[in-house]
Amino acid sequence: MAKIFLPPLDDDLLKECTMTAFRARGSGGQHVNVTDSAVRLTHNPTGIVITCQVHRSQHLNKKECLVKLREEVERRNYRKPKRVPTRIPHAVVQKNKAKKVKDSEKKKLRSLPPQENE
User: Fold this and answer.
1) Does this model's pTM top 0.85?
2) Would the pLDDT of 116 be above 90?
3) In the CATH scheme, what is the code of domain 8-75?
């Protein structure tokens, strides 16, 4: 997937987006029920949709949407770095060999001794 680049200025970013205002839901009382303060921002080049209805002001919700849009683009642009395998130290290899020898000796002691026929 290609990296997404956004303009650094909010005004330029708003020109790339379609903004829709709608009535918010939930708590907030009568003010929320009668004003279109919630904002839905659609970034046209990428199709990312961000909504915000936290504040009572449409202007503040629009600013919050721009912040969320930048965070979402940053999240989508992130690529996990490739893992570089490391070499096992010599001391660890020796320790593992010693442990295997010790465990095999224990297992040998568990077996029945050979029976001699008379």
Assistant:
1) no
2) no
3) 3.30.160.20
